[in-house]
Amino acid sequence: MKIVPAGDGPLIPARIGALRLHATPAELRATRRTSAERLTRTVLTVAGCWVVAPLAALIPPHFEAFILALLLGLYFGRRAWVGEWQVISMDGTCPRCDGTVSIRAGTMLYLPHTLHCGSCRTELWLELEPAPDVSPEVRAAAREQLLTPAPEPPGQRQLGTWSPASSSWRDRPRSDS
Predict the structure, then answer these.
(1) Which of 105, 111, 100, 114 is nearest to 87 (CA)?
(2) Which of 37, 126, 133, 42 minimizes the C-alpha distance to 89?
(3) Taking Cα atoms as reference points, which of 29, 2, 1, 4 lies closest to residue 14?
(4) In this predicted model, what pLDDT tens digit does every residue of 93-151 receive, in sequence order?
(5) Are 57 and 39 contacting, i.e. CB atoms less than 8 angstroms apart?
(6) Structure pTM?
């Protein structure tokens, strides 16, 4: 594996998106992993876990540990195969709260990559496209609209659960026919 010093590597146009908000630009520096490198890492990961599987069979309960080692080999092998990009650095801002969002160097990315804002806990995603040019006023208006609760229509009460004990159905006058 080739280690690239931080700050080196091409700047890739990327954006951080969230539901119902305009995407913000992100500074992503990453190297694309070749399919030969991904295949080598996948084969070594699966082979390593499968070599450990017979040793895991010695640990009681025997069959479950063996199957678990085989399945872990498949799981980690798939993660090694789908990681197309290796992050050198990534910095951006959350579209909802303008908090800082970053990814650790060395992380394997399969895009779109899911992130979480550390400030507002919003689920975000990283995409390889430039962010749209949106004025700060439009961005702030979209954020305010998202955070402001919708007003209730007049004359309509909130929905709730119905229970015979909480209603006045027994106290209604009967119409004698």
Answers:
(1) 105
(2) 126
(3) 29
(4) 999 888 999 999 999 988 889 999 988 888 999 999 888 888 888 888 888 887 777 67
(5) no
(6) 0.67
